[in-house]
Amino acid sequence: MVYKVLGNYSKLIEEQKTDSKYFIGIDIGGTNTRVVYATENGDYYTIKEFLCSSITKLIEELTIIQNECLGIFIEPEFCCIDLAGPHLSKNKYKLTNYIESDNFLYTEKLPSKLCPPGKFAVLNDLESGAYGIIPFMKSEGGLDSIFSTIVQQTGTLRQPDNCVYPVLAAGTGLGVGLITKFGDQYKVIPSEFGHISICSDTHDCEQELFKKLQNIIKEKEISRTNYSLEYEDIVSGRGVQALYSIMKHENEPERNNAEIATQAAANPENLNCSCVKTMKIHYQYLVRCAREISVGTFGASVFLIGDNIVRNNAMVCSIKPFLGEEFLDHPKLEWLSTIPVFGQKVIINLNLIGCIFYASSQISKKN
Question: Measured in Å, how far apart are the chain's first and last C-alpha atoms?
Answer without folding.
Answer: 26
